[in-house]
Amino acid sequence: MNIAEYSIRNSVITWVVTIILLGAGFASFQKLSRLEDPEYTIKEAVVLTPYPGASAAEVEEEVTDVVEKRPSSWDSSSGSNLAPPAVYPT
Predict the structure, then answer these.
(1) pLDDT of 44-84, one tens digit each?
(2) Are residues 56 and 85 located together in one domain of the fold?
(3) How far apart (Å, rounded) are the C-alpha atoms in residues 14 and 6?
(4) Could you tell me if 26 and 58 lie in one domain?
(5) Which pLDDT belongs to residue 61?
(6) Residue 86 contacts residue 71 (beta carbons within 8 Å)
(7) Strand partners, 48
(8) For 8, 30, 49, 62, which has the most beta carbons within 10 A of its beta carbon?
């Protein structure tokens, strides 16, 4: 008697084993550890600083240089009306 024939003749056992395996698989999946925000390192970034009406030199001096010197000190809760510069990893 091969496994296919046995499964057809004893369908109750086949269904019980299938349900047990599905339940064990679901329980194992729920126990998998996962990080909400996995750590990764950005080695390079492009900083876009829109400043309507200003020349490129003014934008570089007043915005870009400041952001490049202290990128981790940007505080969005400072009450400033200016939006923070867009930073895109490259």
Answers:
(1) 767 677 778 888 888 888 877 777 776 555 555 554 555 55
(2) yes
(3) 9
(4) no
(5) 82
(6) no
(7) 86
(8) 49
Give me the amino acid identity at 30: Q
- Is residue 49 classed exposed, middle or buried when 0-12, 13-18 and 19+ CB atoms within 10 A define those classes? buried
Q: Which amino acid is at 19?
A: I
Split into its structural domains, the chain has a count of 2
- Find all residues with CB under 8 Å of 74, minimum gap 6, and list them: 67, 84
Q: 54 in helix, strand or coil?
A: coil
* Domain co-membership, 25 together with 50: no
pLDDT in tens, 4-29: 999 999 999 999 999 999 999 999 99
Q: Is residue 65 part of a domain?
A: yes
Residue where the block lists tokens 């269904």:
15
pLDDT the model gives residue 18: 96
> Both tokens of residue 13?
């056992």
